[in-house]
Design a protein that fits this description.
It is a single chain. α5 (101-114) packs across α6 and α11 packs across α16 (581-599). This protein has 690 residues and is α/β, with parallel strands linked by helices. Residues 184-239 have low confidence and may be disordered. The radius of gyration is 38 Å and the shape is elongated. It has a six-stranded mixed beta sheet with strand order 2-1-3-6-5-4, sandwiched between helices. It contains 16 helices and 31 strands. The structure holds adenosine monophosphate and magnesium ion (MG). Magnesium ion binds at residues 452, 496, 519-520, 526, 579.
Length: 690
């Protein structure tokens, strides 16, 4: 660190990042690469500008044209693609005094080693005054790889560019220069590294270049960086549809998702806004009613009880004035809890009565059997003839439940918006007052579709062929939907072909209210959901990216479907969830469930929230809020949460036992044990972990 660091300025070119700097992660990626060079580089300035040529140029000139404190290296990131908005190379070219095609060649050659799509890269490099200017791609990965391809030779280049007297610079020979600039004194090796893309020399080329989503990145042995970096947007949001045209093939797809990155809250707002309102139907009061929400106030049709009833086993009596019932009385009738006409009772007579049975006409009170003695029996010994009553001071109405004393006919027993539960007594209440039908909101029907050429039915016998993946999501989501009370229809597996997918979706849209798909929403050329929804089905994508982990490419759309009967166009809801199983289940609970709730009239929508205490330290994602699968259990100290383990979105094992999603903020430092956070409860709280 003895030498003075070379001064670097980084210019992020992105209309999105210019509005919301938090969406940019290339800056961090570049700083990281530079920091690895042992203090040789110092990032002294960073700026973000939109994809506007004049603004790009203005900033570069501010840096490259200053008289003192000049910048050695100006790196731009973004705006290098083929779309209309991409104009960084043109803006920079116009400013370059000395083009550096060698640097361009080195960057292209290194990228071409990774993917033929590098042919579409259009880097520009050169010298303006004393500064080297290089344009890098907008994706953190691309920017990083391109910079790494030329980085070792840049100190030398910078020193040359800065030197007024090149003879003085070369006085000690090239080896001295390289040594000063920190290149290995064995200059042959140093050059081989730069020019021959030596794979053994620490390049990070094991990343696949063509895809920038979660799914295709894991399995390379990089434990953390597997494609979760925030993407920078380079295309205008005004273009509609934003999805790729699948007919144009991989070389013409967008290199970055054109969908704005939304916060989870904003995504939920859009879901609330665009989910069709609940539909009112007449439902029978039967075992299928629980879970439904009432669309009307319900009034009692009848009194409960419907007649004067005894609340004890004993004898119905007509209480004389003063209440003295002591004496022996003939048992003239029996009133069981069964329907039928009863004989009127007179003073001096009693009638045997059971709990819940109607009082005979004329009876005013009931004496408990415990307050009586059997006096005489019928000749066959089977029936009571006379009973002695021991009670004194008996009041009228004693041990009687009056007609309508529980519920009066006409009274409101349940209100609009109330949900009929299976554990509470609402269903019994309806049954008691003679209500056989109620107006409710219709429960939406959900169809679940898996997509992907590699996906095979989970129960397909035999071993998997190379590349095949057992369908994990369909059964998981169908079960989750059913557990939440919704009918889930199996829509099978659709191949990654536009026609197949369109046909499957069209057919499904006629049968169901909601479609939930998994897979195919990332950035691969076979990721067809967004284009199929927008281009083939005429749907509207309300959002296509959410700042969260896992689940970034979650897509929410509505598609108008013409009803055969009425000819009306009804919007149907399509959720396209990411393919990784953990992402799929998390986004189901977080986004699909609130939408189902809204369509079913359930409020508030979504999972219940509780504050829980972390049982151990939790590492956070640096850029995105994370929904961490965890187990919540109740104990003496309240609710405590334990992680289910590794949270990679492809990790099926992280689903085991999870009954909640912890709402973790993004951040650099871990959240410590004992911190309280919000948990979204997916299932019953456990109590066996103490
Ligand atoms: P995609 O979103 O299509 O790029 O898929 C991302 C990852 O999830 C890939 O590794 C897929 O193989 C995997 N995947 C997609 N659908 C399923 C599924 N139904 N079951 C299990 N894994 C899946
Ligand atoms: Mg796929």
């Amino acid at each position: 660190m003895s030498k003075t660091a070379l001064r670097v300025a980084v210019l992020i070119v992105s209309t999105t990042a210019a509005k919301d700097p938090s969406t940019d992660s290339s800056q961090a990626a570049l700083s990281e690469v530079l920091a690895k060079e042992d203090g040789r580089w110092e990032v002294v300035e960073t700026k973000i500008v939109p994809d506007v040529a004049s603004q790009i140029q203005e900033q570069i000139m501010l840096w490259a044209d200053r008289a003192a404190d000049h910048i050695n290296l100006i790196l731009t990131s973004g705006g290098t693609g083929f779309t209309v908005a991409d104009n960084t190379p043109e803006a920079v070219s116009a400013l370059i005094h000395k083009p550096a095609p060698g640097l361009v060649h080195a960057m292209l050659a290194a990228s071409l080693d990774v993917t033929p799509f590098a042919m579409m890269a259009r880097p520009v490099a050169g010298v303006r005054n004393k500064s080297i200017v290089i344009t890098l791609p907008g994706s953190p990965k691309g920017a990083r790889e391109n910079l790494q391809a030329v980085l070792k030779t840049l100190p030398h280049a910078c020193l040359q560019a800065a030197s007024i007297d090149s003879r003085a610079l070369h006085a000690g020979g090239i080896e001295k220069l390289e040594a000063e600039a920190g290149l290995r004194s064995d200059s042959g090796q140093a050059r081989a590294h730069g020019q021959h893309h030596n794979h053994g020399a620490g390049h990070q080329h094991s990343h696949s270049h063509g895809s920038s989503h979660d799914g295709h990145r894991h399995g390379h042995g990089h434990s953390h960086d597997h494609g979760h970096g925030n993407l920078v947007r380079h295309t205008p949001s005004s273009a509609n549809p934003m999805s790729n045209d699948p007919n144009l093939g991989p070389s013409r797809r967008s290199r970055e998702s054109p969908y704005p990155m939304l916060s989870v809250d904003d995504a939920l707002k859009l879901i609330k806004q665009h989910t069709p309102p609940p539909e009112i139907i007449t439902s029978k009061v039967d075992v299928s009613l629980p879970g439904l929400v009432l669309a009307e106030d319900v009034r009692a049709k009848e009194n409960v009880p419907a007649f004067r009833a005894s609340i004890v086993d004993g004898y119905a009596v007509v209480v004389p004035k003063g209440g003295d019932m002591k004496g022996v009385f003939p048992v003239v009738s029996v009133s069981h809890a069964s329907p039928g006409e009863a004989k009127p009772l007179k003073v001096g007579e009693i009638s045997r009565i059971t709990t819940g049975a109607p009082l005979p006409p004329g009876a005013t009170s009931v004496i408990m059997v415990e307050d009586t003695i059997l006096k005489t029996m019928t000749d066959d010994g089977k029936e009571e003839r006379e009973v002695e009553i021991l009670a004194d001071n008996v009041k009228e109405g004693e041990n009687i439940r009056e007609m309508g004393s529980d519920i009066k006919a006409g009274a409101t027993i349940l209100s609009k918006g109330e949900r009929i539960s299976a554990v509470g007594g609402e269903i019994g209440l309806l049954a008691a007052v003679g209500v056989a039908e109620v107006k409710t909101y219709r429960r939406p029907i959900l169809g679940v579709l898996s997509t992907g050429d590699e996906i095979v039915p989970h129960d397909r016998p035999g071993t998997l062929r190379l590349g095949e993946v057992r369908d994990t999501n369909r059964i998981t989501l169908m079960c989750a939907a059913r557990e939440c009370g919704y009918e889930a229809i199996d829509l099978g597996i659709a191949a990654d072909r536009p026609g197949t997918l369109e046909e499957t979706l069209r057919h499904a849209l006629r049968r169901v209210d909601f479609i939930v798909t998994t897979g195919g929403v990332s950035m691969g050329e076979l990721d067809l959901l967004k284009p199929t929804i927008e281009r083939a089905l005429g749907g509207t994508i309300h959002f296509g990216r959410v700042a969260m982990k896992p689940g970034k490419p979650t897509t929410f759309a509505t598609v108008p479907v013409k009803e055969h009967s009425s000819g009306h166009r009804t919007p149907k809801v399509v959720f396209s969830l990411p393919g990784n199983p953990a992402s799929a289940i998390v986004t189901f609970h977080l986004f699909v469930l609130p939408s189902l709730h809204r369509a079913a009239g359930i409020a508030p929508e979504g999972l219940p929230r509780a504050r829980v205490t972390l049982a151990h330290d939790f590492t956070l994602d640096r850029t995105r809020p994370e929904y961490h699968r965890a187990v919540v259990s109740a104990g003496p100290a309240g609710l405590v949460a334990v992680s289910t383990g590794g949270q990679r979105s492809s990790k099926v094992s992280s689903l085991r036992g999870a009954n909640c999603l912890l709402c973790m903020p993004s951040g650099d430092k871990p959240l410590r044990k004992g911190t309280t956070v919000d948990a979204l409860l997916m299932g019953p709280i456990r109590s066996d972990l103490w």
